[in-house]
Amino acid sequence: MKVADYIAEFLAEKQVPAVYELVGGMITFLVDSLHRHGQTKIISMHHEQGAAFAAEGAGRMTGIPGVAMATSGPGATNLLTGIGSCYFDSTPAVFITGQVNRFERKGSRDIRQLGFQETNIVEMVHPIVKRAWSVEEPEQIVAILEEAFQLATSGRPGPVLIDIPMDVQRADIDPEACPRFTSTSAKASTMTLTDAQSIRDALLRAKRPLILAGGGIQSAHALGSFHELVNIIQVPVVHSLMAVDALPWNHPMNAGMIGSYGNRWSNLAISEADLLLVLGSRLDVRQTGSDTEGFKGDREIFHIDCEAGEINNRIHGCHAIVSDLNPAIEMLIETLKPASAELKNHFTTWVDSIDVLRREWPDINELQDIEGINPNKAMHQLSQANRNASAFVVDVGQHQMWAAQSLEMQPGQRFLTSGGMGSMGFGLPAAIGAAIATPNSPVIMIAGDGSFQCNIQELQTVARLGLNLKMVVINNECHGMVRQFQQSYFEGRYQSTMWGYSAPNFEAVAAAYGIAARTVEDPTGVDDAVAWQAAQTGPSLLQVMISPLANAYPKLAFGKGMASMEPHVLSEEMEAT
């Protein structure tokens, strides 16, 4: 069979639900083979970045590597942002690029390019993939595909890329005679009984312990065992931006999100904690602030991660436990179960004190003097109207922080956002991938007016497929996150955020695509508007108008400790947004 036909058969065997692409000359054989094979959906996007983000959304929802394809040259380079997003946020994905015929490549010639659109994507992508291959001989495809899928899902998941010249795609092979892939990867280190006992003993000594849940819990498919652990020891859980969905909103141990834009009560709680158990989180600057010594303080920190380099990287003095999360959590469960009753009674006062902080500093009061719609309140109203949604897919900007602070996540709901790459334009295409992966439940997309415009062309994909996708555009008529930064550091000179920036009426734009749409401007109309959208069975768009001057608060005062937050305390140093 042809190489392209084998690829189509292989993807079907791996139960890949869909391949996302923007057609181009160098992938026409692949597209035709997928079409003729008929087992894997072909989702034609309107930009390769959209295809990459859609594959990321699908990979996050299913755990099966999302697959995106692009032609050589601009098609391949347009994938780069989405590939990087998968890499930084540990999403399993396989990217397949078409390349010019082998005889058209420049090889060792001292020229820039020989074939039209010839581009060495393999070399470009190396820093942001687990591995990249150029298929030099047709018979290599069997082993490369097998290794690619295993590598994308093993250890810390991530993207891989396979670049296939066009003449290789149409070459004939006998798959049974081709070399196969034999895994030689070493087993990841696992937590020892001594490690687990040390954590147990530290918990019994502690008075104010916290678990910090990171995105690694979902990446490792460890959510079930994590919930069991929390229920056994009854230790409050704070979470990172990437772990908003680690516990349901109303779980008694959910102590909120920490970090640069974390819930005020959560940052206050972590500043008081005397023990921290970190599960699958990188402890990056957006979680800890810049005062790393202050974050560590005198407390014990047990840091469990599958990559040794992530531990004692910024925050020093942690007890390092290099392990995949599932076996680590299972060993903790086994070790801590006999002490469960003692641990539960041990932390009642601490749990109650966090509840007091939550009541004292509710998220909806951070912007209590704002004119018009309060975005934090709107997030509560939105999530209450969509308890049956499979996922909230959130773009990047101020709306991302309001959503992470205030969405009332239900059991089983997913929260998808671009964390490490932080790419505007993630939301709409990633929501497409999530909606295709979970066709029986609605998906809610939340974007700002600026980020929504980055991949607005994918509205046509939504309309064409008739997806059950509910799009919410938080429209403050500016690039709000950077405008807030300019307010703090540039004396309110709003160049390129308010001055020289504009957005359309998104209700009218949606109508042009044949998508049901509505706008809400008054706080009294939000409940009715979200109820209207929740009742829609096909795609819909709700434009929520808010003040351009609404800030994302609280915000860690850069250079100070976790208890020091704007607007009450100002930053000492300049930071990233």
From the structure above, extract its key features.
577 residues, alpha/beta, Rossmann fold, 3 domains, six-stranded parallel beta sheet, 25 helices
Walk me through this protein's architecture.
The protein is of the alpha/beta class. It has 3 domains: 3-177, Thiamin diphosphate (ThDP)-binding fold, Pyr/PP domains (Rossmann fold); 193-363, TPP-binding domain (Rossmann fold), CATH 3.40.50; 370-552, Thiamin diphosphate (ThDP)-binding fold, Pyr/PP domains (Rossmann fold, 3-Layer(aba) Sandwich), CATH 3.40.50. The chain has 25 helices and 20 strands. A 6-stranded parallel sheet has the order 2-1-3-4-6-5, sandwiched between helices. Strands 9-8-7-10-11-12 form a 6-stranded parallel sheet, sandwiched between helices. Strands 14-13-15-16-18-17 form a 6-stranded parallel sheet, sandwiched between helices. Helix 1 crosses helix 2 (28-37), helix 11 runs parallel beside helix 15 and helix 18 (375-385) packs across helix 19 (398-406). It is globular and about 70 Å long.
CATH topology of the largest domain: Rossmann fold
Shape: globular
Name the CATH architecture of the largest domain. 3-Layer(aba) Sandwich
Total helices: the number is 25
Largest sheet descriptor = 6 strands, parallel
Rg, Å, rounded: 24 Å
Task: Name the CATH homologous superfamily of the largest domain.
Answer: Thiamin diphosphate (ThDP)-binding fold, Pyr/PP domains
Note the gap between the termini.
52 Å
* Portion in beta strands: 15-25%
- Which CATH first-tier class of the largest domain would you pick? Alpha Beta
Number of domains: 3
User: How many strands?
Assistant: 20
Contiguous runs where pLDDT drops below 50 for at least 5 residues: none
